[in-house]
């Protein structure tokens, strides 16, 4: 598709908890030209400022609520529409300084109606983008 548009070029959303931990949010686009079921979402190789992020620290926003990424595989009746970027949250970070931060993400989606052998096609795109964080940004 358009791998240079995979991560939406906008300001990072940042929230900081009283315990000193922080979370950042950014948005990714569907790497396919048609809506697909959310249970086929594949997020991998997420890196924030050079540090790999485990899937247990990722959430996605679905219908205005945060869902742990590891629970998305059960969402067979929820769809990701091509015009709706998906908000991703990385939890458990140390404080996030003002300025620019580098985010890398591999976003994939299973295309259930294209079967190769016995498995549905999974398309994946990867992008690294530098996103700004300003003092007043919010998740």
Describe the structure.
With 139 residues, the chain is mainly beta. The protein has no helices and eleven strands. The protein has strands spanning 13-16, 22-28, 36-37, 41-48, 51-52, 58-62, 65-68, 79-80, 86-93, 99-116, 119-133. The strands form three sheets. The protein has a five-stranded antiparallel β-sheet, with no helix packed on it. The protein has a four-stranded antiparallel β-sheet with strand order 5-4-10-11, with no helix packed on it. Strand 6 and strand 7 (65-68) form a beta hairpin. It is globular, with a radius of gyration of 15 Å. The model has no long low-confidence stretch (mean pLDDT 91).
Mean pLDDT rating = 91
Shape: globular
Number of strands: 11
Structure annotation, total helices: 0
Helix/sheet category: mainly beta
Which consecutive residue ranges, at least 5 long each, have pLDDT under 50?
none
Strand order of the largest sheet: 1-2-9-6-7
N-to-C series of helices and strands:
EEEEEEEEEEE
Radius of gyration: 15 Å
Q: Beta-strand level of the residues, as a percent range?
A: over 45%
The helicity comes to under 10%
Distance from N terminus to C terminus (CA atoms, Å) equals 28 Å
Oligomeric organization of the protein chains: single chain
In this structure, how is the largest beta sheet organized? Answer: 5 strands, antiparallel
